[in-house]
Design a protein that fits this description.
alpha+beta, Endonuclease, Chain A, 10% strand, elongated, two-stranded antiparallel sheet, 8 helices
Length: 233
């Protein structure tokens, strides 16, 4: 409702007042409803934890019902937003090609946290003269390596064939292909970083990963007696 108007809500209805409401609604839709950007920011602002904020913002961008530019402009028009810094980070990551919650977690907790080189994200790749195009999730172009991230809880048969074909195309093109899901990235980001770093180093990367915490084994030499590996700890 417009700010200043008093309404007794019917049972089961929540009434919220907004200043300049006429600028926030879809002009051609009836009954009037908020623009997608405003609705996304409202849902995010009501969240008590960061996970729902990540979910709703990335879901809206992935479904292409809005854009990072439009969401950023809507956020700037608000004097207050509980998750302003997080939404800004999400929009910046979306501009770099991050299209899912799992991809964001890999970016922040695997790639950036351990000093891996930045990957090319969700860029189209064409297969020779046949014209077939696919979109690797992460491609470390100078080091001929691909990382695919799978956030689904199950694999329909057709999806398994598609994922296998994508991995095979990368290998046939002379690239190392790694695949991770939520279990690996969420529960063992250091192990994932260690494996990716080993593959990149084997393909010419001269950098060195660094540990993300005092207990992180990435980038540390393994003791001769312990036989520690990147997945230990």
């Amino acid at each position: 409702m417009p700010h200043g108007r008093k309404v007794r809500p019917p049972p089961g209805t929540v009434v919220r007042s907004r200043c300049q409401l006429e600028t926030l609604v879809q002009p051609a839709l009836r009954p009037p409803r908020l623009r997608v950007d405003e609705a996304v920011l409202d849902v995010a602002d009501a969240a008590r934890r960061p996970e729902p904020v990540v979910d709703v913002v990335l879901a809206a961008l992935q479904r292409r019902v809005t854009t990072p530019t439009r969401l950023a402009a809507a956020l700037e028009r608000r004097a207050r937003h509980r998750w302003r810094a997080l939404v800004h980070d999400l929009l910046a990551d979306a501009d770099s090609g991050v299209h899912s919650v799992l991809e964001r977690r890999y970016l922040t907790r695997v790639e950036r946290a351990h000093g891996l080189p930045p990957a090319e994200r969700n860029r189209p790749r064409r297969e020779g003269d046949r014209g077939r195009t696919w979109y690797p999730d992460l491609r470390y172009v100078p080091f001929r390596s691909v990382v695919e991230l799978d956030g689904r809880r199950y694999h329909p048969l057709a999806t398994e064939f598609r994922d296998r074909a994508r991995d095979n195309r990368s290998v046939l093109a002379g690239e190392a292909a790694l695949r991770y899901g939520w279990r690996e990235v969420a529960a063992d980001p250091c192990g994932v970083a260690g494996e990716v770093a080993q593959v990149l180093a084997g393909n010419g990367w001269t950098g060195r990963p660094h540990p993300c915490s005092p207990t992180c084994p990435v980038g540390r030499p393994a003791g001769p007696a312990t036989g520690a590996s990147f997945r230990d700890g």
